[in-house]
Amino acid sequence: MTTIRPATEADLPAITAIYDDAVVNGTATYELEPAPDQAEMLSRFRAITSAEYPYLVAEEDGVVLGYAYAGPFRARAAYRFIVENSVYLAPHAQGRGLGRLLMQALIDDCTQRGFRQVVAVIGDATPASASVKLHTAMGFTLCGTMTGSGYKHERWLDTLIMQLPLNGGNTLPPDPQSVPERRYREGA
Asked: Of 70, 71, 143, 170, which is the most exposed, with the fewest CB atoms less than 10 Å away?
C-alpha cells in the first residue's frame, strides 16, 4: 500500500537518488550536472520546509518511490500566493499512478495552506508527455509555451507553463490567515 506523507531529512538519500536519475537521464529538470549531493539537497529541503511550503514523499514498504514539493514561483512579495510544483518518481515507480497520488496530496496541502495558484513549469513539454497529461488530468490549464527554452541531451527543449487556481484563485481577496499572507505580514 502506498503512503503519502510529509518528507523528512531521513528521506533525502532516496530523494537525492531519484533526482539524480532525473538529472542524468531525463529532461524534466534542466540541471545538467549529476544531481546535487545530499548536503545541497538538504539545504534545498530546509529552504522549502522552513518557509512552510509542502514537501511530500510516496512510500511503499518503507521505500521512497517519489516525491513532490511546492515552492515559491518568484521571489517578489506580490507572487506570494503562487507556488510552483515539482513531482519526481523513481524510474521503476513510473506509470503506476503514484504521480497522481502525490500531485493530489500536494494540491490538497497547498489549498489548506491558503495558496491561490499552482504553476507547473514543465520541461521538454509536448502534449503527449506524461507530465502534461498528468497536469491536464488534475485540472491545470495551459498558460503558454516557451519554445526552445532549454538545451539538454543534444537537443532543444520546449517549456510549457500550466496553472491551477485554488481557493477561489483571483476571484476573492487574500485570506489573512493563509500561510503566504501570514508570513508576509510577519516579514518572513
From this structure: 170
DSSP 8-state code for residue 174 = P
C-alpha cell at 141: 490549464
63-104 confidence digits (pLDDT tens):
999 999 999 999 999 999 999 999 999 999 999 999 999 999
Q: CA triplet 149, 56, 80: central angle to 5 degrees?
A: 60
Neighbours of 16 (CB within 10 A): 18
Cβ of 74: how many Cβ atoms within 10 Å? 11
CA 89 and chain centroid, separation: 12
- How many residues in the chain? 188
SS3 content of the chain, % helix, strand, coil (to 5): 35, 30, 30
What is the gyration radius of the CA atoms in the chain, in angstroms?
A: 16
